[in-house]
Amino acid sequence: MDRLKVYFNNTTDELVQDDVRIPVIRKWGHPWFHLNKREQATVFLTETELRRLHRRFGHPAVMRLAKLLNNAGHDNFEEKTLEEITRFCHHCQLNSSAPRRFKFTLKDNRYFNYEILVDVMYLGSKPVLHVVDSSTAFQGAKFLSAMSAKETWQALRTLWIDTYQGPPDILTHDAGTNFASAEFRAEAKIMGVTCKQVPTEAHWSVGKTERYHAPLRRAWDILHAELAGTMPDEAILQMAVKAVNDTAGPDGLVPTLLVFGAYPRMTTESPPSPSMVKRSEAIQKATKALRKLTAERQVADALNTRNGPDTADVLALPLQSEVLSSSHTTDQIISGLILMRRTRRLRR
Fold this sequence. Notes:
The chain has 348 residues and is α+β, with helices and mostly antiparallel strands.
């Protein structure tokens, strides 16, 4: 406090440094003050919290968990602690594989066009194909002339695949006749796209696309009310999509900057378009910030979630998949009640 020239005002319960005042809460005979979200992500992790993270992330390798914690800003832990947790973990002892040589690096899914989320929304009475990139939140939209699988695939090719980088690795969609049809999946398989279907009315369905319906609809309503008689609806929809893509998100990241590495020029006084080297550096810096924010959120969610099994693989199963189910039955015997477990294979 002497070095920072800070003093505690016990009459107003504040920390005072020149003109800066931080409110303090008195509890249990000691003064406390709250950290902001960025400081909360960099506090010291106890061994109990490290064990909880080890369980919540599905018992990952030591280097993989250490890399995630470093991206989230936790650089105050020792890898020896993670190694001890992994060595004494019951599930890691039973299911760990033998040591292997390093052969290749798995793909990082935090880049543009790795996974896209598609859904159909309605603007007025017209169906619209809405596409959102999973990592950068860059999006696109196009009117559909018919709710058929062929028309949906042609609209997706025109809107996304033939316009930007190409076909994505994963295409996530809700359960619908136009996306789940054999024709749509066959066309996607030819181009090397893996279709991932979300079960019907699942509470954890494609939430990002559903959330981005509201900003796009709001931008469409404003532009359509002002420009309805001067230009077609397709041009107004493209203007609405452009306005949403050029808007900064809650973390200050602009989707256009993440994808193209430059801010859009608005007027003649705007700075000139940067060179390819500057664009590449901007994309690398923005992607690094995006990965850090994603890692911070993953660690915070894992620490605040109650302990339980990893259900990510189960939730990703499509409909009519075979699952292994365990049920409990109670039978009456001579000596009294006994609890028995029966395991069988079911088809859902």
